Amino acid sequence: MFNMFFLIFNQLMKMLLIMLLAFVCYKLKIVSQEGNKSISNLLLMIVNPCIIIRAYQVDYDAHLVKGLLISFGLAFAAHIIAIVIVRLLVPAKNNPDYFLDRFGAIYSNCGFIGIPLVYSVLGNEGVFYLTAYMATFNLFFWTHGLSLMENGFSLKQLKEGLLSPMIVSTLAAICLFFARLHIPSTILDSISYVADTNTPLAMMVAGFSVAQADLRKVFTNLRLYWVSFLKLLIVPMAVTLFLSLARIDYTLAYTTLIAAACPSSAAMTMMAIRYNKNYKYTSEIFSFTTMLSIVTIPIVTFFAGFLIK
């Protein structure tokens, strides 16, 4: 219990220092918004797929297959739990941006933040299972999430979401895993080098985003506190309770919990821009939950230690 707490807290402190460095770099204009966009695209299109490919380059094991299937079920359950809770606790009345509050409280930054955290405490096996959460995230994001943003969704947009780099790389990696095909060591080593840049690049993107936010406005917006409370504490603790009652294996349980406890998704702002919604507010949700998660994730995992054995 305490070991997991200190592992996660230590990793988050390292990530915070990188985020602070990125914050300073953006304020000093060492990095521009164009640079931020380029790094985000690099993470999404290249680095994260490399992580997925590496995670599946292990020997075929029936235990891993069973764990992966369970992980898909847990990820589905975690999203349903979040949707139900947020639907009940974020009313639409007198809140023109209620759908953004719901979006921010449901969908987590399970890729950028989740991958380095899970890898640091659970290793490659944890990332292997995390891919199930990320694939499920994409499915919900482009169906339920899109319906929140547009009050409806189209098959065209769903197709676009399912063809995202994360989904394609996950499917490719799974095919290699089940076909028991191993990438030559020289190529795999190169993929690993790229994958290892995920943590610094992801935290730099987070730091750049925080640097662009009006922090005075962020800290005085009471709605942000409520959304953050739901996203970072209520939903993860509800997921913890579910995992405890279901008596889920330690590694599978903590992989799902860490993914659910991550701050609001960075992709939310991209979607808000695309559909002409209040993207500045979504950026504030992302920035505020990212800052608070440095404290809340260790708290959630600490209390989870009493329930998950």
UniProtKB/TrEMBL annotation:
Protein family membership: Belongs to the auxin efflux carrier (TC 2.A.69) family.
Whether Transmembrane counts among this entry's keywords is yes
> Which PANTHER family does the UniProt record give?
AUXIN EFFLUX CARRIER FAMILY PROTEIN, SLR1864 PROTEIN
- Please give the start and end residues of each transmembrane region: 6-26, 38-56, 68-90, 102-122, 128-149, 161-179, 223-246, 252-273, 285-308
One Gene Ontology term, aspect cellular component: plasma membrane
Topology relative to the lipid bilayer, per the entry, is: Multi-pass membrane protein
Source organism (scientific name): Muricomes intestini
Keyword tags: Cell membrane, Membrane, Transmembrane, Transmembrane helix, Transport
Q: Which InterPro entries match?
A: Mem_transp_PIN-like, Na+/solute_symporter_sf
Record's protein name: AEC family transporter
Would I find Electron transport among this entry's keywords?
A: no
Subcellular localization is given as: Cell membrane
Lineage at the top is: Bacteria, Bacillati, Bacillota, Clostridia, Lachnospirales
**Example GO biological process term?**
transmembrane transport
Primary subcellular site in the record, as a coarse category: membrane
Q: Which domain of life is it from?
A: Bacteria
